[in-house]
Amino acid sequence: MDIPYTVAERPDTGLNNVKLGIWLFLASEVMLFGGLFSTYVILRVGGVDWPLGAEYLNIPIGAFNTAVLIGSSVTMVMCFASLKLGDFAKYKTYMGVTILLALTFLVVKFFEYYEKVTHDHLPSHSTFLAIYWTMTGLHGLHIVGGVIVNGYFWGPGSKLWHEKREMFENRIEAAGLYWHFVDLVWIFLFPVLYLL
Amino acid sequence: MSGSAEETKKHIDIYMKVAGALAVLTVVTVLASYIDVAVPLAIIIALIIATAKGSLVVSYFMHLVDEKSRTLAIALALTVFFWLVLMLVPIMTTSDTYGVHKPLPNANAAHAEDEAH
Question: Rg of chain A's alpha carbons, rounded to an integer?
Answer without folding.
Answer: 19
